[in-house]
Amino acid sequence: MHPAFSVIAFTVSSGAGFGLYMLLVMAHVFGFLTMERGTIITATILAMVLIIAGLLSSTQHLANPKNAWRAFFRFRTSWLSREGVFAVLFFPFAMLYLLGVFLSDTGSIGFFTKLMGLFGVMLAFATLFSQGMIYGCLKTIKQWNTPLTPTNYILLAFATGALLFNLLLAMNGHESLGMMGGITLGLIFIAMIAKGIYYFWIRTPSSSSINTATGFARGKVRLLDVGHTAGTFLTEEFGYKTAKGQLNILKVVVFACGFFIPFLLTTFMVVGASAAVFSALLAFVVAMVGITAERWLFFAEARHVVNLYHGAQRT
Amino acid sequence: MKLGLVVDLDVCVGCHACAVSCKQWNTSGTTGPLTDYAPYDEDPSGVWFNRVRHFEVGDFPNSKTVNMPMSCMHCEQADCVDVCPTGASYKRAEDGIVLIDQDKCMGCNYCSWACPYGARELDRDTGTMKKCTLCVDRIYDESLNEIDRQPSCVITCPAHARHFGDFDDPNSNVSTLVRERGGHQLMPELGYSPTNHYLPPRIMKPQQTAETPRKSLISSVKDWVNQSVAR
Lengths: 315, 231
Ligand code: SF4
Ligand code: SF4
Known about the structure:
The structure holds 2 protein chains of 2 kinds.
Chain A: H1 5-29, H2 37-58, H3 79-103, H4 111-136, H5 148-171, H6 177-201, H7 210-214, E1 221-225, H8 233-238, H9 244-271, H10 276-300
Helix pairs in contact in A: 1-2, 1-4, 1-5, 1-10, 2-3, 3-4, 4-5, 5-6, 5-10, 6-9, 9-10
Chain B: E1 3-8, H1 17-26, E2 36-37, E3 45-46, E4 51-57, E5 64-70, H2 79-83, E6 89-91, E7 98-100, H3 110-114, E8 121-123, E9 128-130, H4 136-139, H5 152-156, E10 162-166, H6 173-181, E11 197-199, H7 217-230
Parallel strand pairs in B: 1-11
Antiparallel strand pairs in B: 1-10, 2-3, 4-5, 6-7, 8-9
The complex binds iron/sulfur cluster (2 copies).
Domain 4Fe-4S ferredoxin-type (chain B): 3-33, 62-94, 96-125
InterPro entries (chain B): 4Fe4S_Fe-S-bd (IPR017896), 4Fe4S_Fe_S_CS (IPR017900), ET_IronSulfur_Cluster-Binding (IPR050954)
Pfam family, one (chain B): Fer4_11
């Protein structure tokens, strides 16, 4: 599949935003971190900015954006529609939570604000799940059609959100940094395991082959002529190919930048608190590079069955 | 009704006439135009509803060239319709034809990802998705003669490889053909249950072409003598 930059930017940016929001509100409402009012407000606003930036970037890949408002109307069948509805519903609740925190003078909030915050968490989670299911529900792309797809989207959102949360806590010289650092290490570790399982799993080919695509199961089938003399929509959208070597290099980047280095830097941040801000910043930036590579690979490694009509023997 | 096509792979000669006539009819039809980008340049491209691919099945000398025209299969389980967030894609209850409302489509490409058969193509000019309409603007047109109320590709095919009809009626031309000739669907394992069917080539004795049987000793000697005498 052709990796569209706007979609990659959307999922990476909104993922970090939703992850940050969910961790922040849960930490605040359930009280396992003590934070100042200012930190909470900055973090909530930052999360919303990231999500809005992502949503705006996602409309960039529409060929006919003037009809984008119609995308909310097929909630019943379409995961893309569900994602849009959940993402938009998220905002009023997040705003009410933010307002509640803003009006309190110490950051201790009442039941109503807590409830609004938690509704926001549920909607953020639902959005991330739908985002993964947009890809996960496609039977045409074996590398996506797995529960591992939404799992990865959710886990990576939590991991990147946690790294960002660390950065904000470190900047405010927070004492609960150690606690959040520990949680971050756990989240990065789980996300890494899930991604590893995914990379292992996609190596098995799908059940569709050039034989089932043409209906001739008894002999060898080969493509003689694709029938077109120049590129088509299908070759542009689905015919994306990368050299095997490049894919492997990128996988190293995913594991090194996405998981390994942030893990080490976070450990360093927890232990040697002197350069905490610098470590946290570096960890977040490096992780963003790694997760962008991960998203790029997610597209580049997906092989749509229509390629069977363009010469592929298997997908 | 369940309207669709049967393509006879035994007689299709791969001439692309169906694809061209489809383009000609539909470019001024309900989902037209079928935009061409840079048609007279080095790298022409554009929207087509029907594309013909050519395969070789089996190994020589038991091999056969199979030409496979493909357009929307008007699937019974059309995931392209389910995934569409705007409701632009829909399947008609009365005849099973899958269509795209050009006024609602936002050009997100999602439906084209859901289609296994490459039937949907984005028109970069209008920013909307386009696909085969089964010539919905022609098959119900009562101002046409009965014989002309068929998709353009079916009427055009010089080899009579294409048939149009109702798959719900067990005695229709298409149902009979599928039954008698063992028609099959493409990629049935994905569960889209495509309406269009393909009739496999009839099994023939392989014709000897390049390799000829080994000559006997006597005829080899005769040939050699004849050649020498002629020299
Ligand atoms: S062939 Fe493709 S576009 Fe047509 S109904 Fe089936 S899935 Fe949809
Ligand atoms: S491209 Fe148009 S028809 Fe296809 S899913 Fe998007 S809005 Fe629906």
